[in-house]
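[09:14] KT: can someone run the structure on this one? pasting the chain below
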Amino acid sequence: MQKKVLFIAQAGIIAALYVVLTVFVAAFNLASGAIQVRISEALCVLPFFTPAAVPGVIIGCFLSNIITGAMLPDVIFGTLATAIAAVASYLLRNHRFLVTLPPVLANALIIPFVLKYAYHLDDAVWFMMLTVGAGEIISCVGLGSLLITALMPIRKLIFGDAYVKTSKAG
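[09:31] RB: done, structure tokens below
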């Protein structure tokens, strides 16, 4: 029972952090569009520490897209991209660097089509793959790697037994 409560609490906190960070960046017009650096995507590396991060970032992305006024295809496929990334990151949780890559790939491959067909952006899909991918590299590889480094010394304090059981890395 206590582990379920911890799982739900961790997922909820991660979802809330994702929403707050996305809304903050949206104020600077960086959370969506062809050129975006959604710093909340750095949280997509948290499956390295806990399986609770998988539903946490998925729910956070879903709520963020609704709150920021995303079009329905963006709510659906943007959340799907994050879900794919979160699950893949969880599967790669034993590899500190590789865990940062699924969000980059999923978003770079899916989001440009959302931008093209939901928002009717005139940019070429390949160009948006580069720009969305670059934003994800900044968020997930850059900031996400920093987040992993910052959390490593206190991982057991924050994530409890979830880290010990799900990851042998670090």
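[09:33] KT: thanks! Residues 2-164 form a domain with the Arp2/3 complex 21 kDa subunit ARPC3 fold (CATH 1.10.1760.20).
[09:34] RB: yep, looked fine to me
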